[in-house]
Amino acid sequence: MGLVKLSRLVDRLDMAEVPAAALYMERHLDRTPVIIYRIMRMGELEIELWAKMDTLNPGGSFKDRGAEYFMKKRMESGELQYGDTVVTASAGNHAKGVAAAARAYDRNLRAVIFMSKTTPKMKIDGARELGAEVVLFGDNYSETAEEAIQYAHRNNFVYVPAYEHEDIIMGQSTIATEVFKQGAGYSHPDFFVVPFGGGGLGNGIGLASDYRDERVKAEGWNAGTKTWVFGVQAENFNTAVRSYRAGEVLPYEPRGDTVADGIRVPKASPGMLELSQRYIDDMFDVTEAQIRQAIRDVYNSRLVTQFQQFPEHELELYHHFKLNHMPRVGRMNVVEGAAAAAFACTSAEDDIQAIARHVHPRKKIVGVVVASGNNIDQSLLDEILQEDA
Q1: Secondary structure string (H, E, C) spanning 162-191
Q2: Side by side, which strands form the sheet with 133-136?
Q3: Most confidently modeled range among 99-103, 228-232, 302-306
Q4: Which of 53, 65, 42 has its CA nearest to residue 298?
Q5: Last residue within a domain, chosen from 138, 159, 180
Q6: How far apart are CA 50 and CA 38, in angstroms?
Q7: pTM of the prediction?
Q8: Does 70 lie in the same domain as 43?
Q9: Which of 99, 216, 326, 328 is deepest in the core (most CB within 10 A)?
């Protein structure tokens, strides 16, 4: 697919910053584990799937990374001073990331979080528990974000974008650099499958993957190395998928709601589409039934539940994460709808065959599914699990 004219966002996203962002995150956020999830066979081809459990970040999602990196850069530049106010709009996980980063390292920042009226109660309560002031406005992320941006502008507060900013994207890129370092059972993943809402996570992982591929080639290790990145949306909110395929931003088409509230983004961003055309290799969408089934599949996964029984010293030694993650291990087999969308894609025969056609140079390929968050209301989780009873 051809690239459209480069935007300022593309120009500001500097690939050379990838290792510095990775080093910062390694010092400020504990590494999350990569665990074996599933082994599939398609004829003579074996597909080994691993899961990057970013559900084990303190905020329960990958959003901790982008918010922390954004805040760090604003403090360094002087745009933010201790005790200032930051504002954002969020479907939930970004709110917790911003709230946590606002009070980290004695920054003492006041965080005002705008959330839509449809946000799960667990995510609203989670932001408030971290000290944020929550304002409920609008019925979807786009409405909420517009109001939050105006509020920040009127009061001359720093607005923290959920995804459309180079520092947010760079912070999310550190998931991929961690995976490359961990290499638990593989030397290099052939592909990533990533939930895609606004696109900060998918484009960040694509950026870091391109950086590593170029470095590998420059070092002469393997000139043919290519890390593929695939984005996944909920079918009911698939504007980015349709826009990616069309090569231009298409309007939102209402199709109903989704349990994947973390990727319930109705509008596609021109700037993020430009990035996706550069860093994403293909995009897919999955149905509500597939997402709900994936939530059950992860919850009941033998490999994931086995992992939860490992002794703490074994977890820390083999999977490179510190003991302060241990209290969250009990929720390791819980994924919210957004994360489940990525797992659902790997279970859909047409989608996994399409991925294999992109990647397939050998008899075995290795993929990493990003478990992006576990912040699902218990009542919704119970409802979905009971559907399988």
Answers
A1: CCCCHHHHHHHHHHHHHHHHHCCCCCCCCE
A2: 133-136, 110-115, 85-90, 158-159
A3: 228-232
A4: 53
A5: 159
A6: 7
A7: 0.91
A8: no
A9: 99
